[in-house]
Write a structure and sequence with these properties.
By secondary structure, this protein is mainly alpha-helical. The protein is built from six helices and no strands. It is globular.
């Protein structure tokens, strides 16, 4: 919550991510019952968003990565931190993978 409350850029990223996902991540992360965090897209988007905000906070403090790595969902934030892809591109991939998994689970 500190990222959100102290940084207008973080609030903008929350709004952008919420809009693209069709969720209100501020409500889900800060006010909703914990069960809402178990919803797949909310959890994935939330982890990606907060991981990216943490990397940006470190960069602002002068801590720059010489390498990045991530496992599973962490790959998206690692690629953004490394400037390999943009936040928007990573978010689109995250949403596309989530949609594909939803579609596949109904088959």
């Amino acid at each position: 919550r500190d990222f959100h409350d102290s940084d207008s850029g973080a609030r903008e990223l929350f709004a952008k991510t919420s809009e693209r996902c069709g969720l209100n991540l501020e409500t889900i992360l800060f006010q909703a019952p914990a069960e809402r965090l178990h919803e797949n897209l909310a959890a994935q988007a939330g982890v990606f968003l907060v991981s990216t905000l943490a990397a940006r906070a470190l960069e602002r403090a002068g801590v720059l990565p010489s390498a990045t790595a991530g496992y599973s969902l962490g790959n998206y934030a690692a690629m953004v931190a490394a400037s390999a892809i943009s936040y928007d591109e990573a978010l689109e991939v995250l949403i596309a993978v989530w949609r594909a998994r939803q579609r596949d689970s109904r088959v």
